[in-house]
Amino acid sequence: MGPITFLWQLVLLIVLGLVIHPATRILAVDRRRARVEHPRAESRIALFVVLATMVLGVFAFEVLAPFPFVPGTAVPELDLESALRILSAYAVASLPVWLVLAVRRSPLATVGISRRNLLRAILLGPVLGLGFAIVTLALDPASVPAMTEPKSWIALSVCLVVGFIEEATFRGYFQTRLSWAMGPVPALAVAAVVMALSPLPHYLVSQNLTPASAFQATGLMLVPSFLLGWFMTRIQNIAGPAILHAFIRWSLLVAFT
After folding, report:
1. Where in the sequence is the domain holding 192, given as residue range(s)?
2. What's the pLDDT score for residue 184?
3. Which residue has the higher pLDDT, 192 or 144?
4. Residue 16 is assigned to a structural domain of this protein
5. Alpha carbon distance 49, 44 (integer Å)
6. How far is Cα 58 from Cα 180, in angstroms, rounded to an integer?
7. Does 33 or 182 have the greater pLDDT score?
8. What is the pTM of this model?
């Protein structure tokens, strides 16, 4: 994908961000927020938990999935075994989140997993995600063959699960708890930057990417990360951001081969 196409994708992401606000108003999204007794303590715990997932992720990928699955690099020859290895690594990396939720007896609703706004999220997420993928195809017709290969469809399936895991971790858990302490907008910004940078140790250690390539791969997800944070702020359910995340990641993964 050339720089012109990349710039058009950035424009598209910004447009999607502008669409999300009126769309959630039209859909009458319930945006009531939970209140907690110790918001700052919760946000500090969330920060340590997310840092733990980043460290654990390096070891998980080194052991379970030591092959590329990085936006900006070629799609690996995915089969069922390699797909399961990638998903296992993501699942292991996210364990600190689920353990803390269980120990603190936090309901899943506090990470955006609930029936509230679920149908609206399921409706809006695929519309935005498919729109991004279709425009990517239109801007970069050379990527069409790659998107129709079997490994690309396996990659999309993996991206859907990865999207759920990452959105539950960074948006549902981390951003939500930051918002209790500092408000929705600062929480969105901090969570977006942390999420975009979170794979950096993995890229450098497990994938053996050069620093330039590693920062390029993380940079590709910076604007999408802000978009997904904005979507979560508006929809209050991780189903929508998770689906949109999957299509953005899949499009970048395939289009940059």
Report:
1. 36-255
2. 92
3. 192
4. no
5. 9
6. 29
7. 182
8. 0.90
Identity of the amino acid at 197 = L
CA distance 75 to 152: 8
Tell me, yes or no, whether 5 lies in a domain: no
- Count of domains in the chain? 1
Per-residue model confidence as pLDDT tens digits over 125-146: 999 999 988 887 777 777 777 6
Length of the chain: 257
DSSP 8-state code for residue 108: G
Distance between CA atoms of residues 166 and 57, nearest Å = 12
Structure tokens at 142: 């050379």
| DSSP at 63 | H
Structure tokens belonging to residue 111: 């990470």
Q: H helices within the chain, ranges in order?
A: 3-26, 39-64, 80-93, 95-103, 118-139, 144-148, 150-166, 176-182, 184-197, 200-205, 211-220, 222-235, 239-255
